[in-house]
Amino acid sequence: MRPHDRSLLFAVVLLVLAVLCLSVAFTYPYDSSGFPRGVSVVFLIFAIVHLVTSMKDWKGQENLDEASNDGNGSASGSGAGRAWVAALGVFLSAPFYILLARLFDFEIATFVYLVAGMYLLKMRRPFVVVLVAIGTLLVVKGLFFYLLDVSRAPTLVFGG
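-> structure tokens emitted (160 positions)
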């Protein structure tokens, strides 16, 4: 399966999941459904944008394939394989993030996880990596601890 076909398939799966999440979010009582509905709507918008982009890329790739038909049919290189391994490494490192959050603190664990994830994904500009990690940390902290008033989990090093 070519990368553009995988992207289109992924976009369709995202769209189906977004519709399912949206349908479940509207079954909650009105008082407690604001956040799930909002997240589901944003998820649906991102899924539609990804589907439209994938369809454009897929059509462009079809035109390219017709224009330069060399017969070998190979579209995936070693760069694509390395990208999948790096992305898989980021997702599989989630248990280490949970362990860090339990041992130290949410802020320390999130910062380390984001910096390590960007390093695995080959983002090498230190200033940008630190800036993105701090910005993401502040947004997530603001959403959960101040807007939603989620209580902090106790940690082993800093207490609770």
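Residues 22 and 39 are 9 Å apart (CA to CA).
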